[in-house]
Structures are given as structure tokens and as C-alpha cells.
Write a structure and sequence with these properties.
single chain; alpha/beta; 5-stranded antiparallel beta sheet; 15 helices; about 45% helix
Length: about 475
């Protein structure tokens, strides 16, 4: 069974106080009594109470200061106060409510109604406290989820925003809200490239009752950029007209950044920043069919450093890594110098193929091997010109840890559609041509021809036969 509510009754009239205490005790309440404000304040500070019944005293009296202090403490703790007065004054009653008192009783007291008034005040107080707790919980939940909420009255244009909504915008909830009319609060800080889209969606929501979901950017007053997702629903009246638009705005910046980091680890080479084999193949799977549909010719260049193993063994792995980074930079620079675009770090893989016809994919496959897919090369000579330009660019001496190195590369080239139209066959054939270039004296460029595959197959078969012969004596 729930404990009885504790009441603090303060009244200088002994008869009224005792009668009130008996009525309330008979109604099941625990009643503490005090004859003046000072004694009541002492009791209030000693033990918690659920409600205070306080006799109204005139300002300027000794008792007034104690009563005022008690009222301030009760208000800070959310304890309801019922003021008791022998003056029937509507103005005084109004002032009493304005000062935060819960209820007002006049003498003579209607004893049969006193428990009802107390019960009503307690229930009202509990409901208010529950509402405040719910609001605090909602605000905390929104803060943890980095999700703000807003509500727009379509008729009046009034927009109400939660505290977390203001934080997402970069505003301080405790500070006065900016004087922005209506939708200005929702549009404030939205990136210029996203603002017109948001305005259009809000207009559709107001006129057609159409909810929306939009991913957009917010520029905070400090200049930082945040990525948010906004989702809405629309409340309609009986005639189907939009009445209220409600929305949530969720800050997903950390998630987007984490996705980008994961994507970088999954699709880009950590040492050079170039696309790795996985991303290169994915991009090629998009570009090769596009080029075929448009009747464009492509060239796949397979680039390998000559004698790279010797650099690692002689100067160490750290110097070898530095060489690979320098080579990747020169490859990118060489492509830019010849007006051919290389893929930069962080470029998304899912770009529309129709955005550019002269798009080229540069990647590090692993070790000292790089690949370059040229899209829309005019002819065989065009691919050869690019390859020779890269050979000259990479052959320039480079200083690594005080050691001047001259790097040479061997490049094999496979063309579409003559040497294949799929990435696997192009890679295989370009790799074959690269090995032939190495065997031809290194620092060479070779185009793939079918006879190369036959020769390599012949050598592979011969090697296997020799190993088997040796094993069998």
C-alpha cells in the first residue's frame, strides 16, 4: 500500500489549523502543523513534504520573510502550495496564481471540500512532474541520438524546435532563439546547394500533404559542416488538408565519416592513396560496358617497376615504401600533365558513367604493380604515347634517404575489343605483355599479341615437365 502523502499545514489560527488537520488526517493524509512561517520553514527543511497549505500573510511583516523563503524552496523542489486567506480579493487571488501557487482557499473553509482540493493539487503536481520527467527524458534521448524534432503549423506558420534541433544547427538552446520567421528556422544554416531542394519539399508538404526524407548538409555558425537526415510526416484535417508538418533532423556526420573511413580502408591503398585492386575492378566493371555501348576503345596499361626487389633488399623496406609513394605521385602527375585524369583518394566508386568520356582509372594492384585504364583512346598510337610519357616521367632520378635512384618500369598494354572486353582477360593479357617487356630488356612498352600467351604457356609447361623429370630422376 502506498504511503500517505505528507502535508505541511501553516496557520496562525489554532482552531482553523486543528480542524483542518483533523479533516485531512481523517482523509488519510499525514499532517505536520506549524503556527507561523518560521516554524513551518524549519519543518519543511527537516523532512520532505508533498504539499504545503500556507496562510497568506501581509508583506512587510516578520512572518512574510519566512513564508517567502519557504515558498521559494517549495517551488525549487516542485512542491505544490495551497494558499489560505480570509480575504476575498480576486486581484489577490490572481497574483497568488501568477507567483506559482497551485491553489487558493478562502476562510471560512468548506471542510468537506478541503480533501478534494488537496487531492486535486497533488494529482496536478504529479502530472506536471511526470510531464517534466518525460520532457527531460525525451530531450536526453534526442541528445544521445543526436536527433532533434520540430513542428510546423501550416496555418499560422509557427515553427517549434526542440533543444537538440538547435544544437544540431549549432545554436545554444539556453540562448534566445534567432528572430527568424516561420520556416526560416528550418532553412537556417542549410547548405546553399541543398536549400532549394528543402524549400521545395516543404512547399509540397504544406500544399499537398506529401511527407519527405532528405539527406542534406548544415553549415554551423562556426563554419563546421554537418551531415543530417530529415524525415517528416504530415497531419491532415477531415477534408484532407495539411494541418501540421512534424519532422526529425538527425545528425549522421559521425556515421558518414566512419563509412568513409571504412570505404577508404576497403577500396584504397593505404601506402599510396591510389585505388586498390577491388575498387579498380569495380570501376572497370562500370566503365567497360559503358565504353562498349558508346563504341569507345579502351586500353589497360599494366605497369611494374624494374628491379624493385633489389631496392628493398639493398636500402630496406622503408626506402622501398618511399619509392612506391614517389612512383604513384609521378604517375598521377604524369597523367595530369597529359590532360588525363587520375583517380584521387576518396573519389566515390558509383559515379555516373555519362559524366565524362575521357575518364581514366589508376590503381595499385599490390607490390610494385600498378594499372591504368584509359577510356576512349583514339587508337593504338594514343595508348603508346601515354605509356611512353609515363616511362619518361618515372625515369627521372629521385632522391630517397640521400640516395639518388633511377627507376625504370616495364609496361604491358591490352586493348579493347581486340584483346578482350572483360576486366579479367584484359588484366591477364596486359600482365603477359608486361612480362614480355621485362624479358626484352626492361624499361620497355609492349602491346599484347596472342602469340605471347602461347609462348608463356609453352614455357610454363616446359618448367613443369623439367621439375617432374628431376623429381623422377
Amino acid at each position: 500500500m502506498a504511503a500517505a502523502a505528507r502535508l505541511l499545514l501553516i496557520d496562525s489560527d489554532t482552531a482553523v489549523r486543528q480542524r483542518s488537520a483533523k479533516v485531512l488526517t481523517d482523509a488519510g493524509y499525514a499532517v505536520l502543523q506549524a503556527g507561523c512561517g518560521g516554524d513551518g520553514l524549519a519543518l519543511f527543511e527537516q523532512a520532505p513534504v508533498d504539499l504545503v497549505l500556507l496562510e497568506l500573510v501581509s508583506s512587510g511583516t516578520v512572518a512574510y520573510a519566512a513564508c517567502a523563503q519557504l515558498q521559494a524552496q517549495a517551488a525549487s523542489r516542485g512542491v505544490p502550495i495551497i494558499v489560505i486567506s480570509d480575504v476575498h480579493d480576486a486581484v489577490q487571488m490572481a497574483r497568488t496564481y501568477e507567483r506559482g501557487r497551485t491553489d487558493f482557499l478562502t476562510k471560512p473553509i468548506a471542510w468537506e471540500l478541503l480533501p478534494c482540493r488537496v487531492d486535486y493539487a497533488l494529482r496536478t503536481s504529479r502530472a506536471l512532474q511526470d510531464m517534466q520527467r518525460s520532457r527531460a527524458l525525451l530531450a536526453r534521448s534526442q541528445q544521445l541520438a543526436q536527433m532533434g524534432s520540430w513542428e510546423w503549423d501550416c496555418a499560422s506558420g509557427v515553427v517549434l524546435c526542440s533543444e537538440e534541433m538547435q544544437r544540431i544547427q549549432g545554436d545554444t538552446p539556453a540562448a534566445p532563439a534567432p528572430a527568424l520567421p516561420g520556416l526560416g528556422q528550418l532553412l537556417a544554416g542549410v547548405h546553399p546547394d541543398d536549400s532549394s531542394t528543402l524549400q521545395q519539399l516543404l512547399a509540397f508538404a504544406q500544399t499537398e500533404g506529401r511527407p519527405y526524407e532528405l539527406e542534406m548538409r548544415i553549415v554551423r555558425p562556426c563554419g563546421t559542416l554537418r551531415q543530417v537526415i530529415e524525415q517528416t510526416d504530415v497531419a491532415l484535417d477531415g477534408a484532407g488538408r495539411p494541418v501540421t508538418v512534424r519532422g526529425i533532423r538527425r545528425d549522421v556526420t559521425e556515421r558518414v565519416e566512419a563509412d568513409n573511413r571504412i570505404r577508404t580502408l576497403a577500396y584504397f591503398d593505404a601506402l599510396t592513396g591510389l585505388a586498390n585492386r577491388c575498387l579498380f575492378q569495380e570501376m572497370a566493371l562500370q566503365w567497360l560496358p559503358y565504353a562498349q555501348r558508346r563504341g569507345l576503345h579502351c586500353a589497360l596499361l599494366f605497369i611494374a617497376l624494374d628491379r624493385f626487389k633489389m631496392i628493398n633488399e639493398t636500402l630496406g623496406a622503408r626506402a622501398g615504401d618511399e619509392v612506391l609513394k614517389r612512383v604513384s605521385e609521378r604517375l598521377r602527375d604524369g597523367l595530369r600533365a597529359s590532360d588525363i585524369k587520375g583517380m584521387p583518394r576518396g573519389q566515390p566508386a558509383g559515379r555516373e558513367a555519362g559524366q565524362a568520356e575521357n575518364e581514366n582509372l589508376l590503381a595499385r594492384l599490390g607490390g610494385d604493380e600498378f594499372t591504368l585504364l584509359l577510356v576512349d583512346v583514339p587508337d593504338r598510337e594514343g595508348a603508346a604515347a601515354v605509356a611512353q610519357r609515363l616511362v619518361r616521367t618515372l625515369s627521372q632520378p629521385m632522391d630517397v634517404d640521400g640516395q639518388e635512384l633511377s627507376i625504370t618500369v616495364s609496361i604491358g598494354i591490352a586493348l579493347t575489343p581486340a584483346d578482350g572486353s572483360e576486366i579479367d582477360s584484359l588484366l591477364r593479357h596486359a600482365s603477359t605483355a608486361m612480362h614480355v617487356a621485362k624479358e626484352s630488356g626492361r624499361n620497355q612498352v609492349r602491346f599484347y599479341v596472342e602469340a605471347m600467351s602461347a609462348e608463356i604457356q609453352r614455357r610454363l609447361t616446359l618448367e613443369n615437365d623439367l621439375h617432374r623429370a628431376l623429381d623422377q630422376g
